[in-house]
Design goal:
Blueprint (H helix, E strand, L loop, with lengths): L1 E3 L2 E11 L4 E8 L5 E8 L3 E8 L2 E9 L3 E5 L2 E3 L7 H13 L5 E8 L10 E7 L16 E6 H10 L5 H15 L1
Parallel strand pairs: 5-10
Antiparallel strand pairs: 1-2, 2-3, 3-4, 5-6, 5-8, 6-7, 6-11, 9-10
């Protein structure tokens, strides 16, 4: 038995395993003392990057299989080859936009779906970048990179044009850091 705060786990069963995720069902005692089951998913942590180039934020427009077209900051999964989240952030920024090098600042991490997965999104900002050629993955073909003034990116985060929650949070954090 494992205790997790007011919860107790008695048994864990793996329901489905794929290359991208593992779905589990835990038999638990809930905080009120009743027996229950808790379904959850293990997926890789992710990264998002707020890249400032000449005072403008790089925002990508991308079609997602499940969510459709949205604006978001460059990012993606931490892969098994990544020794830390900064390595993944650097890789993803270069793949999607071509920008490399620069000065990197950690901006914390978020749990985007804490009731479904323990996965986190690690947030980074980067400045003083060097341009290069992007090398998108097959699922990223057709990605469009926009260079938005920071004030416009803030409006896009607030009005929903930036549809990725962790991207919106990072835009607001970077804007707050540049104000004060």
């Amino acid at each position: 038995m494992e205790t997790r705060g007011p919860w107790r786990r008695h048994h864990r069963e793996s329901l489905c395993t794929t290359a991208r995720l593992v779905a589990y069902q835990d038999e638990v005692t809930q905080p009120d003392g009743s027996a229950g089951r808790y379904d959850w998913v293990r997926v890789p942590d992710q990264v998002r990057v707020a890249a400032l180039v000449e005072g403008r934020l790089l925002v990508v427009e991308q079609y997602h299989y499940l969510a459709g077209t949205m604006w978001q900051l460059p990012g993606g999964d931490l892969g098994p080859e990544d020794h830390d989240s900064r390595a993944a952030a650097r890789r993803e920024l270069a793949e999607e936009t071509g920008y490399r090098e620069g000065r990197w600042t950690a901006r914390g991490a978020l749990h985007p779906l804490p009731g479904l997965t323990p996965a986190r999104v690690h947030l980074w900002s980067a400045e003083g970048l060097t341009p290069g050629e992007p090398a998108p993955e097959p699922g990223e073909t057709g990605l469009e990179v926009r260079h938005l003034p920071l004030a416009e990116a803030v409006r896009a985060a607030c009005d929903g044009r930036i549809g990725c929650a962790s991207s919106a949070a990072l835009v607001l954090a970077v804007a707050a850091a540049h104000v004060g």
